[in-house]
Specification:
Layout: H1 5-35, H2 38-64, H3 84-111, H4 115-145, H5 148-157
Helix pairs in contact: 1-2, 1-3, 3-4
The protein binds fe (ii) ion (2 copies).
InterPro entries: Ferritin, Ferritin-like, Ferritin-like_diiron, Ferritin-like_SF, Ferritin_DPS_dom, Ferritin_prok
Keywords: Cytoplasm, Iron, Iron storage, Metal-binding, Oxidoreductase
Domain Ferritin-like diiron: 1-146
Length: 161
């Protein structure tokens, strides 16, 4: 095995967290579908797929290095929300939490002096910057839409060459 037990355990924990992420976004997609919001639902289905992909990618990395992947129970997710905006507020908080977890994973890789893992985790550090930005942009849109007139002026100003 080319990966330390501690590093392997940290990855296993993150893999389960990514699957939990996939479930929460899938549940959000179902909620949107039920409420008739097809666009939001489709965005959330894609988000759920992406999180599952993260779990697969991390599992593949651990297995490639001769480690073992063991799935544990995945906690139940929240199933009801007040409105679309509340879902995105939850999404941002969740992604900020994931960023913290990825940082902890990177700390373990540093402490274990595991260069391959450090290199692998780097792309997830970049990914989290993007994830947080995307969700923040959506939340900003909610704010702007509730102020039509100013949003219109903003759009006009964006045309300046
Ligand atoms: Fe993820
Ligand atoms: Fe994510």
């Amino acid at each position: 095995m080319n990966i330390s037990q501690r590093m392997q355990d940290a990855f296993n924990k993150q893999i389960v967290a990514e699957l939990w992420s996939s479930n929460i976004y899938l549940q959000m997609a179902f909620w949107f579908r039920k409420e008739g919001w097809k666009g939001f639902a489709s965005w959330m289905y894609k988000q759920a797929e992406e999180e599952k992909q993260h779990a697969m990618d991390m599992s593949n990395f651990v297995l490639m290095r001769g480690g073992e992947v063991k799935l544990t129970a995945i906690d139940a997710v929240k199933t009801n929300w007040k409105d679309a905006k509340e879902i995105f507020i939850d999404t941002l908080a969740h992604e900020q939490n994931v960023t913290e977890m990825i940082n902890v994973l990177a700390d373990v890789a540093d402490e274990e002096k595991d260069r391959a893992s450090q290199n692998f985790i780097d792309k997830y550090i970049d990914e989290q910057v993007e994830e947080e930005r995307n969700v923040q942009d959506i939340l900003d849109s909610f704010e702007h839409q509730s102020n039509h007139a100013v949003a219109h002026i903003d759009k006009e100003l964006s045309k300046r060459q």
